[in-house]
Amino acid sequence: MKVLVVNCGSSSLKYQLFDMTDESVLAKGLVERIGIDGSVLTHQPAGKDKTVINADIKNHSIAIKLVVEALISAEHGVIASMQEISAVGHRVVHGAEKFASSVLITPTVMQALEECIEMAPLHNPPNILGINACAELMPGVPQVSVFDTAFHQTMSKKAYIYGLPYEAYEKHRIRRYGFHGTSHQFVAQSVAELMGKDITELKTITCHLGNGSSIAAVQNGKVVDTSMGFTPLEGLVMGTRCGDVDPAILPFLMKKEGMSVEDIDNYINKKSGVLGISGVSSDFRDIEGAAEDGNERAQLALDIFAYRVRKYIGSYVAAMGGVDAIVFTAGLGENSVSMRASIMEGLEFLGAEICPERNNVRGKAREISVDGSKVKVFIVPTNEELMIARDTKLICGK
């Protein structure tokens, strides 16, 4: 069974084609600048050179058509015809309370996705465009929707209800939803396999750390809490997002600075986080470089980030009544030796201690805790696309 995984943004489209007999990637690629001058498709067949295709890509339907043409091309294709694609799996950001797992896409599901647009106005519309484009080009091929929010739907009300009048939840479904769910699920399952345990036997804290960051407490295979909330703004300080702040700061700033609603939204989503603190960049690599050169604000940004992650880890240990494994994933979590060390410093009282030699690695799945550590610490590179492909295979039953 071959599964095409599609992740549509407003002007981009990422894809991977999997052979699910061995979960190998046959090809992957990226379409950029959809609907914008200078649009391009970069196609990478497994074991071959990249192919760059410049074209006038006006919409997602044309983008999908070009992707399929690249996949079946005599020169750089990896399948004989599009009939070899058994199913398509789509990343969809928000499923609200409507979806607690991945689902086969039907007209009823599409209607529900439309209703979720107000929850993720920047992300769900292009996700829907991608689904419609595939349906148009590949009629009859089953499609599956895999949600960023679904894995977190096992949280109880005590974890997801905010301290607002209950009517806000009843009328508008204002609650904590959580994001990066596909990554947290993949990593939690992977670390259980590395430990030779069943996921239902473990208490795991998964740390998805990158430009966007979130942490999840996974007990017996189910999420009991997560750091992102109604939107991906809540939780940790991130690349450009402020994370947790006193909400009274927002009207205060709006009055003092004469900001509109749009201004303050831009301020807390795109100008804050480690970018706003450091004044250097939203890229942690740039900030780490500046800190090494003696930039005090850059070092402060790194210290704040590590401190916040450490606090969340501690709170989730309390929420679960213990922890068996702490896992680092995503760009920063997988690759920053110094950040992992900073986060873990001070958590020795939990019985979690990392080995400097084992920690000195980037992007490889491995245990980094010392021998005999009561709490195991791991790096697990995330693979959201493979998780989507697995769910798609499971649902389509081929």
From TrEMBL:
Binding residue positions for substrate: R91
Organism: Dendrosporobacter quercicolus
Record GO biological process: acetate metabolic process; acetyl-CoA biosynthetic process
A GO term from the CC aspect: cytoplasm
UniProt-annotated catalytic positions: D148
Record-listed E.C. numbers: 2.7.2.1
Subunit comment: Homodimer.
Keyword list, A-Z: ATP-binding, Cytoplasm, Kinase, Magnesium, Metal-binding, Nucleotide-binding, Transferase
Family: Belongs to the acetokinase family.
Coiled coil: none
Metal-binding among keywords: yes
Primary localisation category: cytoplasm
Annotated positions binding ATP: K14, H208, L209, G210, N211, G212, D283, F284, R285, G331, L332, G333, E334, N335
UniProt pathway annotation: Metabolic intermediate biosynthesis; acetyl-CoA biosynthesis; acetyl-CoA from acetate: step 1/2
Protein name as it appears in the record: Acetate kinase
Classification via Pfam families: Acetate_kinase
Cofactor(s), names only, from the UniProt record: Mg(2+); Mn(2+)
GO MF entries: acetate kinase activity; ATP binding; magnesium ion binding
Cellular compartment(s): Cytoplasm
Site features described as Transition state stabilizer, chain residue numbers: H180, R241
Reactions catalysed, as given in the entry: acetate + ATP = acetyl phosphate + ADP
Cofactor, how bound (note): Mg(2+). Can also accept Mn(2+).
Function, in words: Catalyzes the formation of acetyl phosphate from acetate and ATP. Can also catalyze the reverse reaction.
Binding site for Mg(2+): N7, E384
SUPFAM superfamilies in alphabetical order: Actin-like ATPase domain (SSF53067)
